[in-house]
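Practice problem. Given the sequence and the SMILES for flavin-adenine dinucleotide, write out the predicted structure.
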Amino acid sequence: MSTAPQHLSKALIIGGGFSGMAAAIALRKRGVAVDLVEIDAGWRSYGAGISLGGATLRAFKELGILDPFLRIGYAADGVDLYTPTGHSLAQLPTPRLAGPDVPGGAGVMRPALAQLMATATRSAGVNVRLGCSFSHIQQDAAGVDVVFTDGTSGRYDVVIGADGLYSRVRSTFFPDAPQPGYSGQGVWRAVFPRPQELVRPAMWLGQKVKTGVSPVTQNEMYLFVTEDREQKIHIPAADQPQMLRDLLQHFPVALMQTVREQIGEHSQVIYRPLESLLIKQSWFNGRIVLIGDAVHATTPHLASGACIGIEDGLVLADELGRASDVMQGLQQFQARRYERCRMVVENSARLGEIEIAGGDKQEHAGIMRSSLMSLAEPI
Ligand SMILES: Cc1cc2nc3c(=O)[nH]c(=O)nc-3n(C[C@H](O)[C@H](O)[C@H](O)COP(=O)(O)OP(=O)(O)OC[C@H]3O[C@@H](n4cnc5c(N)ncnc54)[C@H](O)[C@@H]3O)c2cc1C
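Answer key:
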């Protein structure tokens, strides 16, 4: 661990998701004292599996968590794209960015990744406080005073809002920021046993409905189905298994029909409307900065939302460490991140529009391919 730069001895991170934890670990590596407050007393992670590209594995390497990650996840090269009857449309390359011996992509169960990163956060010496948030924040030219919901208080050189899509840091300190926007699609997810023949992620592009599977452990895979839906609605849990079964009727390919037969009324199915957000103005207000979904939330069409949030943590620590003061570090952080994050949010949104319109599959595959190649660029 190096010695903290003079202008940055203490940082506060609000939100202990993937982005906040990555920032915390990266700042500790630079010797910065870090407090992290997480509102959920159980520090739980919701959802089924998550797909991660080579850029995320590269970021894990820099954070020092790649080896344990490879023990809990399922790493593989490439993504297969098919028609609903199983005719091959394309195989997307996933460059090996974390080293020649590490495949170019991976899947993992979300709670397993969250637990791995939480352990790494605590081992790095981050002062984690659960069931806690901010109640009042006031900044002056030299620092930020924070009063917490448990009545304690602290003074920090920088405050990092990593509190997700519905960020309270954003609504408090960035009142002109846009609200999350519904994309016109929802996604269904569930976990199933992995058939031995499924050795890498695959997607089947229907006219308007898309499905895909991604191995998350040696024995399991997660399934997603995206469909267009004009309204952002809540679907009662009891109705979800049958609705997912109905959607899979659009995919005659054998693997999808086998999955379909496994869905019963007690299956754990999660439906979620898709939303996105991109702040085009400043990502910081004085010494308070936003990272991850709080500032750029993407729909999952490129499976890269967690990736760009985790990278934010690395780049923020790097720029704050290199700059001569906090303000310069925050400016350099946004300058280095904006274009990459914009590309992910906007290209993901475009993929969703093509799906909603029942548009050109080759254009869809082309955008996926070029976006994955851009993500391979160094950060
Ligand atoms: C359906 C779906 C599928 C996805 N699939 C993928 C995928 O395959 N690959 C991928 O890379 N990305 C994927 N993503 C995106 C990814 O999940 C997010 O980009 C990522 O989780 C964002 O992490 P975050 O830490 O920025 O925010 P969050 O995960 O939202 O974490 C925010 C944290 O802050 C806490 N918090 C909230 N408010 C407060 C407060 N006031 N005080 C303190 N703490 C607070 C929350 O409890 C939470 O722990 C998907 C997203 C969706 C919706």
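Check your answer against the key. The chain has ten helices and 20 strands.
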